[in-house]
Write a structure and sequence with these properties.
single chain; 238 residues; mainly alpha
């Protein structure tokens, strides 16, 4: 008798408990704040239609089988934990009518979207920024329209912007300063050497017909150039 009871207890009571990833996805969805649940629900509906044409599937009830037709009918009683939110109710019904392999794929989408939302929340907490439903919507739309890589890049950029806003732009490294000084020195040396070359009066490159096109450039003397190079070398030296 006890063995029989134990066997019955291991049988999934709910349709989504047959697949671990789907069971996790449904649990995660029901734990979200209601406004966020609505945003995620909209994303699920869009993805289900985009990838599996669920609207067409629902219109042809025979194709989903009698058991699922009965399940859809029972769902109208709204007794399940996720039925209180109309958008989530619709989204989970969209997942329900799919074959199991496609249900599993939708579960992965749900888990990815929630993962990115939680990552966004962590970023905001790190920099004492306020989370925004508008930004959560942007993140979910980014995932729906462009996929994981694009969403991850978006979050990296957001983190960088918040970091700069909190701590200011990153300070230049010694190498960056050295590179800029070397570029300046090289430019100054070119100007300095060019000033010693006498160009023909009719040379269009060195002496344009329209003097207003010539930018005013400071030409250094030999002593000034040498002094500038000595100063720069001292600055660059470790």
């Amino acid at each position: 008798m006890k063995n029989h009871e134990n066997a019955e207890s291991t049988i999934p009571k709910r349709w989504y408990e047959r697949q671990p990833s789907l069971a996790e996805a449904i649990t995660v969805l029901t734990d979200l704040p209601d406004p966020v649940t609505t945003i995620v629900g909209d994303s699920i509906i869009t993805l289900a239609n985009q990838e599996f044409k669920v609207m067409e599937l629902k219109d042809s009830l025979r194709s989903i089988g009698s058991e699922k037709v009965m399940g859809m009918h029972k769902s109208k009683q709204r007794r399940r934990a996720y039925d209180h939110n109309p958008t989530l109710h619709k989204a989970i019904n969209y997942i329900y009518v799919l074959p199991e392999p496609k249900q599993d794929k939708m579960a992965n989408h749900v888990l990815n979207i929630v993962k990115y939302i939680k990552h966004y929340d962590t970023i905001c907490k790190t920099y004492n920024a306020t989370t925004s439903l508008d930004e959560i919507t942007v993140i979910t739309e980014k995932y729906v329209n462009s996929g994981s890589i694009s969403t991850e890049r978006f979050l990296v950029n957001m983190k960088e912007m918040l970091h700069i806003k909190t701590y200011g732009p990153p300070k230049d490294s010694t190498k960056d300063i050295a590179d800029r000084l070397n570029n300046t020195l090289n430019s100054a040396k070119v100007d300095h050497d060019a000033s010693k070359i006498s160009a023909p009066e009719n040379d269009p490159v060195i002496k344009p017909k329209d003097p207003t096109l010539v930018k005013e450039r400071v030409i250094l003397s030999d002593n000034e150039l040498n002094a500038m190079m000595d100063t720069a070398k001292q600055t660059i030296a470790p």
